[in-house]
Amino acid sequence: MKTQQHTSASPIARLLSLFGAILLAGSLLSVSGARVPAEAALGTIGTPDYLGDAESFAVVAGTEITNAFGLGPAETVVDGDMAVSPGTVVTGFGTAQGVNDGTTYTGPTGTAAAAKLDADAAWTNVDSYGTATPLAGAELGGQNLGPGVYTPPGIANFGLTGTLTLTGDWDDIFVFKSPSFSTANDSVVVLNGANPCNIYWRINESAALGANTTFVGTLLAGTSITVGSETDVEGRLFAGTGNVTLIHDQIATPTCLTAPSDGDGAGGGPDGGAASGSELADTGVAGLPVIALGSAALVVLLGAALAARGRRSTLS
User: Fold this and answer.
1) Which residues is 225 bridged to in the sheet?
2) Cα dist. 151→66, 106, 202 in Å?
3) How far is CA 73 from CA 100, 185, 229, 230, 248, in A?
4) DSSP character for 92?
5) Per-block average pLDDT, block size 10, for the chain (316 residues)?
6) Which phi-psi region, left, alpha or beta, contains residue 161 (left: φ > 0; alpha: ψ -120 to 50)?
7) 3 state DSSP class of 283
């Protein structure tokens, strides 16, 4: 006659079951859609979510945004949100000479603070992107440059007089890093296939765009940004500790290029390209959490199988 002996599972089986249960619980939390705050980790440079909570903003400043309107040919129009943080001063808008087509946020907390935090994070992160290529001269006018990270020679500052052409593809990255930066009047940044969303100007201190300039890219200045009259910007103006000053200007967040729709990499992201990992994570169906969930379930099943085998082996 066989007598069943009631014995506990082996230590290995118990450990596997415990580990699997913990992993499974963590995976379920990941899949639930909980989002890591943008200030903790921005997206990858070149992806639609790279700027985090600052993505929808055309102008961000630390102390003040000023539209120094006066007699002139046109009003200042900002097509995108604006934020000042920790400051609260925005002047020259809501008048015949200043229009914000987005929403204006101010103050040391809330939406303004979140946008400013991620704008500052981009200023920091762009500085460590890629390997810099020092150019032979600091003057960018008259050059045709491909994708890359560019710095001026020695302790010089980048300047632009005339036309700078940027030649690339929709997914190429352009980064210009300089202690300070200025453009002469009537200067132009021309794109030859490059993506305006993937152009970053990372400036240690202040930047000044001359009058009648056509500028493209996200301008990240550590201190302040001054824009001359009748300048068009397709991009963003993010100032660190100081202010942003405008006058009769047109500022608009950029229109991003996406992967071609001929089968060469087009996907289902919100801008037509393949969805990035962070986008998937925000929907609660990220690939990695799903993989972790499956792995956790497998570990639990393995532990249960070993426990059952241990019980069967004790039958006599």
Assistant:
1) 207, 244
2) 30, 33, 10
3) 18, 17, 9, 8, 7
4) S
5) 44 49 40 33 77 97 91 84 98 88 97 97 95 96 97 97 97 97 97 97 98 97 97 98 97 94 48 33 34 42 49 45
6) beta
7) helix
Question: Nearest to residue 194, comparing CAs of 220, 216, 163?
Answer: 216
Report strand pairing: 104-106 vs 81-84.
parallel
Where residue 147 falls (left for φ over 0; alpha for ψ -120 to 50; beta otherwise) is beta
Question: Structure tokens of 184?
Answer: 């002469």
Query: 194, 152, 149: which is closest to 171 by C-alpha?
Result: 194
Q: Give the list of residues 6+ apart from residue 180 with CB closer than 8 angstroms, or none.
A: 157, 203, 204, 205, 206, 207
CB 249 within 8 A of CB 230: yes
Order of strands across the sheet with 225-227?
Answer: 89-91, 64-67, 243-246, 225-227, 207-209, 181-183, 158-160
Which of 224, 234, 227, 218 shows the shortest CA–CA distance to 249?
A: 227
Q: How far apart are CA 236 and CA 230, in angstroms?
A: 16
Report the predicted TM-score, pTM, of the whole model to 2 decimal places: 0.71
3-state secondary structure of 310: helix
Q: Encode burial over 130-169: b for 16+ CB neighbours within 10 A, e otherwise.
A: eeeeebeebbbeebebebbbbbbeeebebbbbebbebebe
